[in-house]
Amino acid sequence: MTAAAFEGHPHSDQSEPLIIERLREAGALNVSLVAEMNDEIVGHVAFSPVTLTPAESGWFGLGPVSVKPDVQAQGIGRQLIREGLEWLRAEGASGCVVVGDPAYYQKFGFRNESALVFPGCAPQYFMALALSGAMAAGTVAYHPAFGVA
Q: SS3 of 16, please?
């Protein structure tokens, strides 16, 4: 399902299924939610820990978010993201970062934060959301699973 969701996407190198698999194998898939329709998985969202330098604990990265192509634009991804963020809040997470379309992710409260940097990413596509306490500052590194090609 994840491979189909990203097939032909201009900003994908088609590594998303492998990223999810490697996060799961490493025990770094802290939140993994699925949506089902008629006993079929049609959506998935992943949240995994990120590292901040200087050290700041409790931060997570959102993604990949996958929705089966024939049911996209029906709110499935939006609902999965909302539920995942609520789970992180309930668990006392400090915050969450995401790389993606600002027009989409700002709907969830994500904002460009100049105090947080993700090297190699255009700043307008890197956003953060403080879930408890103040916004962090520093350099963000995603889990090594995201280094797959």
A: helix
* Chain position carrying tokens 């600002």: 102
pLDDT in tens, the chain (149 residues): 765 655 766 676 767 878 889 999 999 999 999 999 999 999 999 999 999 999 999 999 998 999 999 999 999 999 999 999 999 999 999 999 999 999 999 999 999 999 999 999 999 999 999 999 899 999 999 999 998 43
Do the beta carbons of residue 16 and residue 6 sit within 8 Å?
yes
Do the Cβ atoms of 52 and 136 come closer than 8 Å?
yes
Domains defined along the chain, listed by start: 2-147 (3.40.630.30)
